[in-house]
Design a protein that fits this description.
heterodimer, A: alpha/beta, Rossmann fold, 2 domains, seven-stranded mixed sheet, six-stranded mixed sheet, 12 helices, globular, B: alpha+beta, Alpha-Beta Plaits, two-stranded antiparallel ribbon, elongated
């Protein structure tokens, strides 16, 4: 058996695990603004700065819009940059998220998922990060605090890879993960330092027809992200799409390299497949809900029911071909959405899955369950009910009422 | 302004300029151009100070003010600020 690096176990909540990972990742600049349920990340990190435990410039800003702006500019100079936010803060960053991806600045950000107002709610759902789906950020959704810790470390490598050069959002469910104490295995500092390394700066050809490092510096002056109108804007967007396509492989590769050191694997880094090989019915979901679903799958398997789970770890980029391969033989699939696309016939994950299956040779029945909005708890019995529904759908080979709600009164 | 149009694989990422900004003649944005009345002009150079594009220069050989129409966007600030109303904005 392969021996992995010896690790210590700390009792940390999700936010603390994220802050700890950032602390170990040799971050140069953190510009952040506190917002529930992310606040602990910023608090912990500012403690590390105050105690001299990190060599990081901590910028206290007046808003999340400024936080993201400071991160982009710091990252453009070649600095490793980290921040964290949640729903209202992420919404305020909206404009700058597109600037971050458009300027190809590899900022890493933790998002403690929270519902958007109104009415005011601080608890978990995915409306905030799903609202930023098209902002050009890589999105990784963690199932537990351990994965949040591991994903942050991996994200610096993924973001800064010259083939990607895209910002990464690591999403962890607000309160469910962010505020819940868990045993988290922590890699030694020197091991993390070796994993993340020093940020690589690729070279680009500048206007003097000379190769220069792709960063703002006085030795090689350049402008990043100035005006590009009808003549060139389109071409730059196509480059971002290419970078997203490259990112899938880089995420898998980085995840595998990390697994070799830590002994922890989350599927292939893109999707976490659970009992899916011979499954007749399956749930597709993101985030911490997958933990509950796995328990229910175990129970159903013990009863002889062929149930499975596909957890989407990497939602952007979404590897469509792999999804088709994983679920086309399943007879009935339930897609669980923890956000709602008003007037859009189902949630955002449902849209992607049904769309992907159009190109599949087999077409499983697909049904959407909107659940857990504003932190509404989703119990194992509700998950079980979904699998029961799937059994019915499988026998009828027909989906009546494709968009449904779980845990909603009336 | 002529640009040799490149495809998305040929350009650097993030809109990094692969050309000097002096090669982009932004003067072709203008509709109205400033024209100076040499009689009225006192060469006080307020226009050069106010020009947001640095498109008004002092030519020391000619000992006179010069408009750089390659970069003048025709905003008309010079005409507005001129104390002797020596600058008129004329349709190009």
């Amino acid at each position: 058996m392969k021996s992995y690096v010896k690790q210590k176990v700390l009792a940390l909540n999700g936010d603390e695990a994220v802050a700890y990972a950032a602390k170990q990742s040799d971050v140069d600049v953190v510009a952040a603004y506190p917002v529930t349920p992310q606040t602990i990340i910023v608090e912990r990190f500012s403690e590390y700065v105050a105690n001299g435990e990190v060599n990081t410039e901590f910028v206290c800003v007046e808003s999340e819009h400024s936080a993201m702006t400071a991160c982009i500019t710091a990252s453009a100079t070649g600095a490793r940059t980290f921040t964290a936010t949640a729903a209202p803060g992420l919404a305020l960053m909206h404009e700058m998220l597109y600037v971050a991806s458009g300027c190809r600045t590899p900022v890493v950000m933790a998002v403690a998922n929270r519902a958007l107002s109104a009415p005011l709610n601080i608890h978990c759902d995915h409306s905030d990060s799903m609202g930023q789906r098209d902002s050009g950020w890589i999105q990784i959704y963690a199932e537990n605090s351990q994965e949040a810790y591991d994903s942050i470390i991996q994200s610096f490598r993924i973001a800064e890879n010259p083939e990607t050069l895209l910002p990464v959002m690591v999403c962890l469910d607000g309160f469910t993960l962010s505020h819940t104490l868990e045993n988290v295995q922590i890699l030694p500092d020197d091991v993390v330092e070796k994993i993340v390394g020093i940020r690589q700066i690729p070279h680009v050809v500048t206007h003097e027809k000379k190769k220069g490092p792709f960063r703002l510096s006085s030795e090689h002056p350049m402008s990043i992200g100035p005006v590009a109108l009808q003549d060139y804007y389109f071409e730059f967007k196509r480059q971002q799409e290419e970078a997203m396509k490259n990112a899938s492989k880089i995420i898998q590769h980085t995840h595998e390299e990390y697994a070799q050191i830590s002994g922890r694997r989350y599927g292939d880094g893109l999707f976490d497949l659970y009992c899916l090989e011979d499954a007749e019915t399956a749930i597709i979901c993101l985030g911490s809900t997958a933990g509950t679903v796995k328990n229910v799958v175990d129970e159903l398997r013990a009863e002889g029911i062929k149930a499975g789970l596909l957890r989407i770890r990497t939602f952007r980029p979404l590897a469509i071909k792999e999804i088709i391969r994983a679920i086309e033989k399943v007879k009935a699939v339930a897609v669980m959405d923890r956000s709602i696309s008003f007037g859009g016939h189902g949630g955002p994950v449902f849209h992607e899955i049904r769309h992907a299956l159009y190109d599949a040779s087999l077409h499983p029945c697909v049904v959407n369950y909107i659940y857990g909005l504003g932190g509404r708890d989703t119990s194992p019995s509700q998950i079980r009910k979904i699998y029961d529904d799937l059994q019915n759908i499988m026998h009828k080979s027909k989906v009546e009422n494709p968009v449904r709600y779980v845990g909603l009164r009336g | 302004m002529t640009i040799q149009e490149k495809n998305w694989k040929e350009i650097p990422p993030a809109g990094v300029c692969w050309k000097s900004s002096t090669e982009y003649l932004t003067g072709d944005w203008k509709t109205y151009k400033p024209v100076r009345d040499l009689e009225k002009c006192t060469r006080c150079l307020l226009c050069a100070i106010f020009c947001p594009d640095g498109a008004i220069h002092w030519n020391s050989k000619k000992e006179d003010i010069e408009f750089d129409y390659d970069f003048c966007k025709g905003c008309g600030i010079c005409a507005n600020e001129c104390p002797t109303n020596a600058i008129e904005m004329k349709l190009e």
